[in-house]
Specification:
By secondary structure, the protein is an all-alpha fold. It has one domain: Peroxidase, domain 1 (Orthogonal Bundle). Helix 1 packs across helix 6. The N and C termini lie far apart (37 Å).
Length: 116
């Protein structure tokens, strides 16, 4: 059975927007870093600049990549940064992860705007 990845991104987006303390600015900045600098930089930004809400967004995003797509997870278990370095060895999978996160962050922004 095929997994609807757009719906999975929408679910993650809603989950991210519902994290306590997450604001539009954090999501906008995370999306900008993802677009300009890549997946590794986005996680680094969320862990370093986002304080507790950012760390929670980072954790939820990493867990999403560990489960999606379910047949072949994009991210390994353990510390996220070594797992991201391993992911970077396969450009197709890295770009796929970036696209999934981009879609999820866009959905998160839409949910956050709808709340305010």
């Amino acid at each position: 059975m095929m997994e609807n990845l757009d719906f999975a991104c929408a679910k993650l987006g809603k989950e991210l927007a519902d994290i306590e303390g997450v604001e539009e600015k954090l999501l906008t900045n995370a999306l900008a870093v993802l677009e300009e600098q890549g997946v590794y930089a986005a996680f680094l930004f969320l862990d370093s600049r986002g304080k507790e809400p950012g760390k929670n967004v980072s954790k939820a995003s990493a867990e999403f990549l560990r489960k999606t797509p379910s047949a072949s997870p994009l991210l390994g278990n353990g510390d996220v940064f070594p797992a991201l370095q391993k992911l970077a060895e396969d450009l197709d999978r890295l770009l796929f992860a970036r696209d999934l996160l981009r879609q999820a962050f866009v959905y998160a922004l839409c949910h956050a705007k709808a709340k305010s």
